Amino acid sequence: MKATRVTNSIRPLRFAHGEMTQAALAEQVGVTRQTIIAIEQGRYSPSLEIAFQIAHVFGLPLDEVFQYPALKGPSPTTD
Amino acid sequence: MSFEEKKAWAYAAIAVIGYSVYLAMVFTAGSFRPLTEVDYAPLMLATIGGAIVAGILTGIAIAVAAPKNERQADQRDREIERLGEHVGQAFIVLGGVGALVLAMLQSEYFWIANLLYLGFVLSAVVGSAARLAAYRRGMPTP
């Protein structure tokens, strides 16, 4: 069972940032290492606040860390 | 395995073991007479009390064994805790409604008390199972 449709690039980003450990990222964000593992594996969709905190650790905008697949159907239009 | 997940395993095990011990004692005491004549109250109070003490001691033991930085519950732990409480609560309500029906039918106190106890045990076991499933497989999405 995939618990969430939110995907993320945390794992490659950690390696790109000096092979940051899950424990180090967890400490900076203020969550447990198990929560970082669950987020990486797609078993937990973090709150917006935690998602922003993770993105800030990597110095990236939110959508470069977290992705959400587009739903089928017409895309929203702006008038 | 996180600190909170270990506690969920422990509480589920304590609930199952405590209730099994209670049932064994009641059936042993009732082997030569009707179950409703068994003096169940001291047995029930002893197993409930024992489960509470075992839960507290196990919680302390798990906390002592865990590294300091992993003892704190985070947002995910709290969300999973709420899910477990929500799932478990249904069985307390079912036990309460069942006991109400039995009282209206003027059933023996034995059955009313035991149905309520079963409701508490199922609440603890199913609530813990929901927590463990959320830790292992993820939180359900709406």
TrEMBL record, chain A:
<feature type="domain" description="HTH cro/C1-type">
    <location>
        <begin position="20"/>
        <end position="65"/>
    </location>
</feature>
<dbReference type="GO" id="GO:0003677">
    <property type="term" value="F:DNA binding"/>
</dbReference>
<dbReference type="Pfam" id="PF01381">
    <property type="entry name" value="HTH_3"/>
</dbReference>
<dbReference type="InterPro" id="IPR001387">
    <property type="entry name" value="Cro/C1-type_HTH"/>
</dbReference>
<keyword id="KW-0238">DNA-binding</keyword>
<dbReference type="InterPro" id="IPR010982">
    <property type="entry name" value="Lambda_DNA-bd_dom_sf"/>
</dbReference>
<protein>
    <submittedName>
        <fullName>Putative transcriptional regulator</fullName>
    </submittedName>
</protein>
TrEMBL record, chain B:
<protein>
    <recommendedName>
        <fullName>DUF2178 domain-containing protein</fullName>
    </recommendedName>
</protein>
<keyword id="KW-1133">Transmembrane helix</keyword>
<keyword id="KW-0472">Membrane</keyword>
<feature type="transmembrane region" description="Helical">
    <location>
        <begin position="9"/>
        <end position="32"/>
    </location>
</feature>
<feature type="transmembrane region" description="Helical">
    <location>
        <begin position="111"/>
        <end position="134"/>
    </location>
</feature>
<feature type="transmembrane region" description="Helical">
    <location>
        <begin position="87"/>
        <end position="105"/>
    </location>
</feature>
<keyword id="KW-0812">Transmembrane</keyword>
<feature type="transmembrane region" description="Helical">
    <location>
        <begin position="44"/>
        <end position="66"/>
    </location>
</feature>
